[in-house]
Amino acid sequence: MNIFRLFGDLSHLASILILIHKIQTSRSCRGISFKTQALYVAVFVTRYLDLLYAEHVSIYNTFMKLFFIGSSCYILYLMKVRFRPTQDPSIDTFRLEYLLGPSVVLALIFNYTFSFTEVLWAFSIYLEALAILPQLFMLQRTGEAEAITTHYLAALGAYRALYIPNWLYRYFSEGTVDPIAVVAGIVQTGLYVDFFYIYFTKVLRGQKFELPA
Amino acid sequence: PVPDHKKDEL
């Protein structure tokens, strides 16, 4: 464990708490893509079911995995049951096939071992890289976002960005590289570049998050 | 081969 990974994970944890806080205090999931949230459940379940068969890593690792599975399912419950009327599928129109299809194909081609569990792991890595797209697409369609929604996205993007110095650190300190995670992680972080530009130049200066017309 | 360090990342 190094500080980049620790702060990355904490940022991920914070992003989920911010999202739950936003939904509960505003009693609304306006502006949040249900598709992106559903994809995260798929990501966490396919990656962290290794809790059932892989050898124990650490209490930290187990706790985080359980938290990510549990909290992502809870968010789906909030969106589909508790605050269902505030969720508007008509603007959440990104096609899931465009993300699921390529993730399955990539996982079948690029994996470390052609076994069920390793293909599943690779699938979860590729799907995570793409899962934010319905949310970003929705943001683009509406052209604006509540400040708290942008804080959620910023924390989520920071988590991805922090994993990059983590890999550099591990490369120099342990001599290890995980090409699948690194390539997918760099792509995933790249998807946030436009968002971060507006977040830093507008939201952090107290202005509203608005996309240029 | 599976990099053995990968399983500890989240």
From TrEMBL, chain A:
The keyword Membrane applies. Its main location: endoplasmic reticulum. It is a multi-pass membrane protein. GO terms for biological process: protein retention in ER lumen; protein transport; vesicle-mediated transport. GO terms for molecular function: ER retention sequence binding. The chain crosses the membrane at residues 57-77, 98-114, 180-200. GO terms for cellular component: endoplasmic reticulum membrane. Keywords: Endoplasmic reticulum, ER-Golgi transport, Membrane, Protein transport, Receptor, Transmembrane, Transmembrane helix, Transport. It is found in: Endoplasmic reticulum membrane. Belongs to the ERD2 family. This is ER lumen protein retaining receptor.
